[in-house]
Amino acid sequence: MLTRTRLQRREPRPAPVVAPRPAADGAVPVGMRIAGAWSWRILAIAGVVGLLVFLVIQLRYIVIPLLVAVLISALLVPLVQFLRRHRWPKWLAVTVAMVGLLAIVSGLIFLVVTQITSDFPRLRDRTVERIEEFREYLVTSPLAISEAELNQYLAQGWEALQRDTGALLTGAASVGSTAGHFLAGLLLALFATLFILIDGRGIWNWTVRLFPRRARRAVNGSGEAGWLTLTTFVKVQIFVAAVDAVGIALVAFFLGLPLVIPIAVMVFLGSFVPIVGAVVTGSVAVFIALIYQGPVAALVMLGGVLLVQQLEGHVLQPLIMGTAVKVHPLAVVVAVAAGGFIAGIPGTLFAVPIVAVLNVMVKYIASGAWRENPHPVLDDVVSDSGRRKSDV
């Protein structure tokens, strides 16, 4: 009886039933099946991204003011929080932040308009003189362009301008439409900034509740990490832009150029497009130096612009920006080019902060830090980025 029981226990278990593999799967190599699985997933992601880009382009008159409001809020929210920590009432802190911003912008616009009004006639006269000098040079140069040929070229250009009168009128109408869109977008940006300062946390909590319950912890933590990155980026970029503007304006001032304040404001705004913004806007100063004081001053001005750009690229950006918003220069150039191709000037402005924020958010979610630290601080973002950089 005991031997029979042992034999029964030693009986082999029935083998599991394996479903037969379809003939098609057996005919396709394993590598091809893996490539196909990757391909349809990549196509699905590309379709979603393309749909988002299409919606952003179609709703650009709403999306762009909202993005501007987010950038402004990233600068003003720390100020409001600072005032709140010093026991200021919330309404007073928000009012001081908004009124201070409007006062600074209005003051800059007043200074620019005043200097342009006072110095533009002199610059215009100098421009006419330089054009006449260049015309005489063409006539007397080895190119041997005669006066009749030059007048013929000018006449052909004037005829082309007259033929395109209809297009110019259409462009003028579009300028009027663009001015209306600009005013509406400005008001929308101001209202959105005001509401973010008043109830930004409530708006973000409502956004998080749109996601599934299991994903809310990761979404909330990554959003806070991205917001820390954005606030750091905006503050540092304002400092870098101010250094660029002051440096180029000082060179223009010592050269005795007109429109120094407009040049400084233009460089300051252009510097929000990293790497290329200061160079493009600084070329205006080079042109003014060429028109007003000649090629030697233009070369000196060009040297000043390049020197300031090198200071930004090799000292300010690596030293001050920090690892929290560290983006490779090649990624910056590609992001700026792609943003300009997709959305023009607004695309170049928002490309780098979007890439920096997405970079930190993806790293935060992929690292799993949201499980243990759902509310990161700036030190967590910086230390995580630095640790990953050293591990590579």
TrEMBL record:
- Residues of the region (Disordered) are 1-20
| Transmembrane segment boundaries | 38-56, 62-80, 92-113, 182-204, 225-253, 259-280, 287-309, 329-362
A Pfam family annotated for this chain is AI-2E_transport
DNA-binding listed as a keyword: no
Localization (cell) = Cell membrane
Q: Which InterPro entries match?
A: AI-2E-like (IPR002549)
Keywords from UniProt, A to Z, are: Cell membrane, Membrane, Transmembrane, Transmembrane helix, Transport
Source taxon at top rank: Bacteria
Report membrane topology. Answer: Multi-pass membrane protein
Q: What is its main location?
A: membrane
Q: What PANTHER family has UniProt attached to this entry?
A: PERMEASE PERM-RELATED, TRANSMEMBRANE PROTEIN
Family per similarity comment: Belongs to the autoinducer-2 exporter (AI-2E) (TC 2.A.86) family.
The name under which this protein is listed is AI-2E family transporter
